[in-house]
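re: ur question from earlier - yeah i can do the single chain one, its not a big deal. heres the input i used so u can compare w yours
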Amino acid sequence: MTVSHDLSIISLITQASVLVQLVMAMLAGLSVMSWYWIFRKWFQIRAARSKTTEFERDFWSGGDLNALFQSASAARHHTGGMERIFESGYREYNKLRAKSHDHGATIDGARRAMRATFQREVDDLEAHLAFLASVGSVSPYIGLFGTVWGIMNAFRGLSNVGTATLTQVAPGIAEALVATAIGLFAAIPAVVAYNRFAHDIDRIGIRFESFMEEFSNILQRNLR
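and the output i got, formated as tokens:
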């Protein structure tokens, strides 16, 4: 008599033990959440890069700083990170210049204001990257736990069988290995996205820092 086993993915999931199914459900949930943040971060970083390029073009075109400041202040919540850095630095510069004749203190104050805004902008870009890193590092181990548990159940089920054949062992092992596959499916995109986004954010951060130094030099020249 030949025993027929359906080894399709759906049947392997539905026939798995409850614990393995819970592991699979957890991994599927982590995968959905990671893909959500992957797309959110991709759009956010793309917008940040585009707005940075746009502001750099406007700033270095030789326009009036006061006009740029008024434009940035009027639409602060819709501007890019570099524009908000400029706005906070120029605001502090104007405030301190009106109160003090100490040029060094004025420039230092503007730099501190820009540095604080810079940190907020970078923190906002890096938000939820730690989640992607966690999914990428933990998901394979969660899947491996489900696999080990499933294989243990498969062999435990053969304890009362006199002669174990491949036909009897294969379904249980296949069910268990699905957990590892789902774990890798959740982990690989998260790791790739994390590395890519971390690189992109570093590049944007370098552009922000370069702008702060160049703008500080411009403000220092204006005080002379």
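The mean pLDDT is 85. not sure if urs matches, ping me
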